[in-house]
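Please review the protein record below. Let me know how this chain folds according to its tokens.
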Amino acid sequence: MRRETSSICRPPTRRELFFDRAFRVGTLLFAWLTILLVVFIVYQIAATAAPAIRSQGTAFFTGLEWNAGQNKFGIGAAIWGTLYSSFLGVAIGTLFGLAVAIFLTEDFLPVTVCLILKNTIALLAAIPSVVYGLWGIFVVIPTLRPVAGWLHQTLGWIPLFSTPLSGPGLLPAALVLAIMVLPTISAISRDALEAVPTKLREAAYGLGATRWEVILKVVLPTASRGIYGAILLAFGRALGETMALAMLIGNANVLSWSLFSPATTLAALIANQFPEASVVERSALLYAALVLLVITLSVNVLGTLILMRSGTQSGGR
């Protein structure tokens, strides 16, 4: 017993201290290299976009025309389409993702069913974006077309249904985007709900609250900060989605509230125009890429900060 105790309680050797310090220095170095890499990427994009920044100025954000032949570049419609489609997709994804998280954490389903559902949703994140796009073209759009036609005929006076769905549009893109962000929202929301102390649930039940009163008035408000972070991170992913939206949104520089109207996004604009772009147009496209990068980085940083603050508070409890 003395030998085992002495071997366990002995001070670290020089070799162990060396590897520990080397590991600490290595992790710190890689962390700073990651930050420097992000700064370098932003610098390179900004340097290439500098001619367009000087020539287009702030009018670049409000212009609705993209005509390389006349050197007219504007991303107003692309910004609108990016924000509108992402907001719709994340809103739909939040409804289903939060419902899934509640059912997985509040013992509504058997353990086997929860495991199957959890793994199935996680697998959605592994499906390539182009597969989602093809599925949207051959399944989602034909399925929505009769419903969209009926809504346009009966409720066409409402701006949301003012145009018919002739093909790709905002609603098909938003529905597919909702499925793509579903794993992010459900996974992080599930962690936030599981972090709610059991004593809070037991106290609410002890006061006579029903199951849904506990969920709606105790569990969800307590986990709200983590849920908000999940929504923001999903929104950041939706903003940068490229291939599926390029195939489903219609790629038209149009400003419209209609769910059935074609539109475009910043990522889709860059992907469609970059292969055949001239030097001038390439600079404008990188200007658009810089705008998209700033938006997505801001949203992701905000979501991460909310999650970190939520984790700190739950750990303090």
Remarks:
- Residues 52-316 form a domain with the MetI-like fold fold (CATH 1.10.3720.10).
- Residues 225 and 310 are 6 Å apart (CA to CA).
- The two ends are 39 Å apart (CA to CA).
